[in-house]
Amino acid sequence: MTEVTIDSSKLPGVKEVCRDFAVLEDHSLAHSLQEQEIEHHLATNIQRNRLVKHDLKVAKQLQEEEDLRAQAKIKHHQDELELLDGEIAQEIQEKLVIEAERKRLQEEKDKDIARILQEREEKRRKKYPPRSPEEHHYPDQEEKQNFHFHKQLQIS
Q1: What whole-number percentage of the chain has pLDDT above 70?
Q2: What's this model's pTM, rounded to 2 decimal places?
Q3: What span, in angstroms and rounded, lies between the C-alpha atoms of 128 and 115?
Q4: How large is the C-alpha radius of gyration of the chain?
Q5: Which of 18, 71, 113, 117 falls 20 to 30 Å from 86 in CA-CA distance?
Q6: What's the rounded Cα separation, in Å, for the pair 99 and 92?
């Protein structure tokens, strides 16, 4: 084999090599730490995104449940109002029927009274028929005077 000769004057010193090696090692360590930090940051972002998606899903589900409860409460309130409206309408209808019956009875009484008065008047007329206009009974003196006045106008 051939022997290779190295010129030691061109070689860097041990301190320089150690320093260069330390710089390379620091750079490698820094690069490794930076890679770990990036991976950790990405893993944290992924975990946070999953958590946000899960929280969003749970929040939507809770909102839907709350909406359903609110709709059920509104429906129940509307049903109660409809029932109350029905009861009030029934009461009004009953009052109207009672009032109509009261009016009908009053009208029957009024008709009965009018019939009785008419029958009495007819009996009185049959019993005491007027013989002439002068003999006609006037309940009011003024009416009697008006009758005589009109009679005199007709004669004149």
Answers
A1: 78
A2: 0.43
A3: 19
A4: 60
A5: 71
A6: 10
